[in-house]
Structure formats: structure tokens, C-alpha cells
From TrEMBL:
GO cellular component: outer membrane-bounded periplasmic space
Source organism: Escherichia coli
Superkingdom of source: Bacteria
SUPFAM superfamilies: PapD-like
Keywords: Signal
Signal in keyword set: yes
UniProt cross-references to PANTHER family, sorted A to Z: FIMBRIAL CHAPERONE YFCS-RELATED (PTHR30251:SF6), PILUS ASSEMBLY CHAPERONE (PTHR30251)
Protein name, UniProt field: Fimbria/pilus periplasmic chaperone
């Protein structure tokens, strides 16, 4: 059994596939300066720069940390400030600060935490 595809049908199928793929991309207005953060044992804090890429509107950026299971944490690291306003085309800075109980983390292996930003 053979099928014949007409040119208009082939073009419309390709266009539908292209539009479906294009709609799956996300465009965030507030973006961090990097995707991986490494907090060394000797560090007291690290900074992350957030950029508002919107040309007209300010955004509120909420930041928090989660453990490897997706649970929000408040210790042994803290995000300061947890919420901040970032004006259009401007930068904001977030500080991830070690708390006194940072020494409760195991010293013989790495610990994993996820840094989250919501606009």
C-alpha cells in the first residue's frame, strides 16, 4: 500500500510541527547570571546576579532553596533578600549566605540544593 502526499499537505504538516515546537519554549523576564552555583566549604556567602530582560515592566523576583527532594529549606543556607523588585532592563543581586549550622552538612561528600527564582 502506498500513500501520496501532496505538496500543500506536506507544507501544512511541517508548519504544524514547527508551530508546536515553537510554543514549547519558555521566555523568562528575570534570569540568573549562571545555571550552576558552587558553594565551597570555605565560603561564607556567594552572590547571584538577576537580570530583568523586560524593556518596560519591573518584576518581583522571589528566590529560595530546596533540598534534593524538592522541600524548601531555611537552613543551613539562606537566600537574602528572598523577594526583590528589579526594574526594567536592570540587575538585582541575591546573596546565598551560610548559617551557623552549615557545619552540620557532611564533610566527606557534596550536598545538593536547588536554587529557584520565580518572577
Amino acid at each position: 500500500m502506498s500513500y501520496k502526499l501532496s505538496c500543500p499537505m506536506l507544507v501544512s504538516t511541517a508548519l504544524a510541527a514547527l508551530l508546536t515546537t515553537a510554543s514549547l519554549t519558555a521566555h523568562a523576564s528575570v534570569t540568573p547570571d549562571r545555571t550552576r552555583l558552587v558553594f565551597n566549604e570555605s565560603d561564607k556567602s556567594i552572590s547571584v546576579t538577576l537580570r530583568n530582560n523586560n524593556e518596560k515592566l519591573p518584576y518581583l523576583a522571589q528566590s529560595w532553596l530546596e533540598d534534593e527532594k524538592g522541600n524548601k529549606i531555611t537552613s543551613p543556607l539562606a537566600v537574602l533578600p528572598p523577594v526583590q523588585r528589579i526594574d526594567a532592563m536592570m540587575n538585582g543581586q541575591v546573596k546565598i549566605q551560610a548559617l551557623p549550622d552549615i557545619h552540620s552538612l557532611p564533610s566527606d561528600r557534596e550536598s545538593l540544593f536547588y536554587y529557584n527564582v520565580r518572577e
